[in-house]
């Protein structure tokens, strides 16, 4: 059952062209995003240890994201691409987090729903890459990632529904979804996931 909602905007073809023009830089950014996604899932466990209903899924998500990092790193090794010296700030994620409300419960809901939207955006973009790549191992890899990210988009909404009324969840998800489209539109195009 699909719990996430459709993104309020679609990624531009120009974004895909930027990625394909510098795929090594995209792989470096992609690796960083997978590391951060794993850490983000575990940060929920650290900040909300009382939310026992969702801890197992958060741990599984963190492990899965770390496995994605391992897989991207293996691709990078095979192409002699090094990890960047620093994990740069993700302006996209920062801009979204800055739009979260400040109350404990409101922030918890907003962070879960933003995680869903970010995963859905990743799924959309991995699908674009998958559809562009020539047949082979890399194409298969991005197909697997596309389906995995789409699943994660649903998981975070499902987590929110453990604690908040359905109408509240989907009303706020719609609001954040529109904000995400505005943030994405404001960012420069570059060979990066966001």
**What is the CATH architecture descriptor?**
Up-down Bundle
Instruction: Provide the CATH topology.
Output: Ferritin
**Unreliable stretches covering 5 or more consecutive residues:** none
Structural class from helices and strands? Answer: mainly alpha
Fourth-level CATH superfamily: Ferritin, core subunit, four-helix bundle
The sequence of SSEs as H and E is HHHHHHH
Count of helical regions = 7
Question: What is the mean pLDDT?
Answer: 94
Helix content: over 70%
CATH class: Mainly Alpha
Instruction: Round the Cα radius of gyration to an integer and report it.
Output: 16 Å
Task: Tell me, briefly, the overall form.
Answer: globular
Question: What's the arrangement of secondary structure elements?
Answer:
Elements: H1 13-21, H2 23-47, H3 55-78, H4 91-98, H5 104-132, H6 137-161, H7 166-186
Helix pairs in contact: 2-3, 3-6, 5-6, 5-7
What do you see in this structure?
The chain is mostly helical. The protein has one domain (13-186): Ferritin (Up-down Bundle), CATH 1.20.1260. The protein is built from 7 helices and no strands. The protein has helices at 13-21, 23-47, 55-78, 91-98, 104-132, 137-161, 166-186. Helix 5 crosses helix 7 (166-186). It is globular and about 45 Å long. The relative contact order is 0.19.
Keywords:
Ferritin; 194 residues; 7 helices; mainly alpha; globular; 0% strand
Short description:
With 194 residues, this protein is mainly α. The protein contains seven helices and no strands.
């Amino acid at each position: 059952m699909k719990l996430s909602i459709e993104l309020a905007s679609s990624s531009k073809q120009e974004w895909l062209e930027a990625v394909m023009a510098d795929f090594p830089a995209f792989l470096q950014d992609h690796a960083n995003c997978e590391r951060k996604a794993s850490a983000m899932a575990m940060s929920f466990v650290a900040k909300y240890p009382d939310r026992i209903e969702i801890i197992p899924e958060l741990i599984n998500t963190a492990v899965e994201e770390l496995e994605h990092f391992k897989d991207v790193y293996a691709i990078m090794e095979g192409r002699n691409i090094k990890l960047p010296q620093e994990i740069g700030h993700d302006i996209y994620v920062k801009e979204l987090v800055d739009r979260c409300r400040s109350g404990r419960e409101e922030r918890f809901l907003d962070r879960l729903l933003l995680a869903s939207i970010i995963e859905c955006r990743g799924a959309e973009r991995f699908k674009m890459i998958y559809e562009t790549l020539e047949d082979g191992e890399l194409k298969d890899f991005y197909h697997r990632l596309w389906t995995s990210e789409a699943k994660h988009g649903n998981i975070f909404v499902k987590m929110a529904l453990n604690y908040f009324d359905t109408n509240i969840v989907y009303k706020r998800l719609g609001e954040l979804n529109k904000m995400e489209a505005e943030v994405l539109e404001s960012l420069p195009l570059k060979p990066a996931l966001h």
